[in-house]
Amino acid sequence: MEKKSDVNRRKFMEIGIYTITGAIAAVSGVALARFAVGTSLEKEKSKWIELDSEDVQDAEEGFARVVLEYEQKDGWLTAANRSLVYVKRVKENEVIAISAACSHLGCIVTWDEEQKIFKCPCHDGRYDAEGRVISGPPPVPLRRHKTKIEDGTILLATETVPYGDDTHEPA
Predict the structure, then answer these.
(1) Which is nearest to 142 in space by CA: 115, 107, 92?
(2) Cβ(63)–Cβ(86) below 8 Å
(3) What is the largest CA-CA distance in the chain?
C-alpha cells in the first residue's frame, strides 16, 4: 500500500513541477515577444501642424487649398506624407479644415467657388460647403481635420476624423 501512495506523491510532484515550469515559460514568452515586437504595432498619435495665417481665407472668400507635409511613423517605418486640405476661417477664433480625399474612392475633390460645392472628378460626387454629400456615390461626408488656435497661431491635426467629430478649440 505504501508504494502506491509514493507513486501518487511522485506523480503529483511531477505534475506540479511541469505546471509551474510551463507557467513560467508562458509568462516569459509573452514578455519576450512584447519586447521583440516593441512599438511596431502602435500607430503614432496625430501631430499638430502650424499654418501660415496667409494660407487661411475668411468665409466670404471661400476655401484655401493647403498642402500638409509631415512625417508619420507606423511601426518601424517612417514615411513622408502629403495631404490636401481645404481651410477657411469661419469666425475670428474658429477655422474649419476639410480633407480633400473623396469618401467614395479617395480621389481629390475640388472646390467650385461659383456653385459653392466640392466636386469629385472621378464619379461626379458632390458635397456642400460643410462636406456633406449632396449627390453621387460617396457614402459619407468628407472627413475633417481637428483645428485649434493658440496665441493667434492656427494648428491642424494630421489625423482626420468623421464629419461632426472635429472640434474647434477656441483661442
Answers:
(1) 107
(2) yes
(3) 101
8-12 long-range contacts (CB < 8 A, ≥24 apart) are none
Q: Please provide the size of the chain in residues.
A: 171
Mean pLDDT score of the chain = 80
DSSP state string for 49-108: EEE-GGG-EEGGG-PEEEEEEEEEEETTEEEEEEEEEEEEEEETTEEEEEE-B-TTT-PB
Instruction: State the pLDDT confidence band at 68, using cuts at 50, 70 and 90.
Output: confident
Closest CA to 171 of 138, 155, 148: 148
For residue 149 the three cell numbers come to 488656435
Measure the CA–CA gap between 141 and 143, rounded to whole angstroms: 6
The pTM of the full predicted model, rounded to 2 decimals, is 0.67
> Are the CB atoms for 68 and 156 separated by under 8 Å?
yes
Choose the weakest-confidence range: 1-10, 43-52, 129-138, 146-155: 1-10
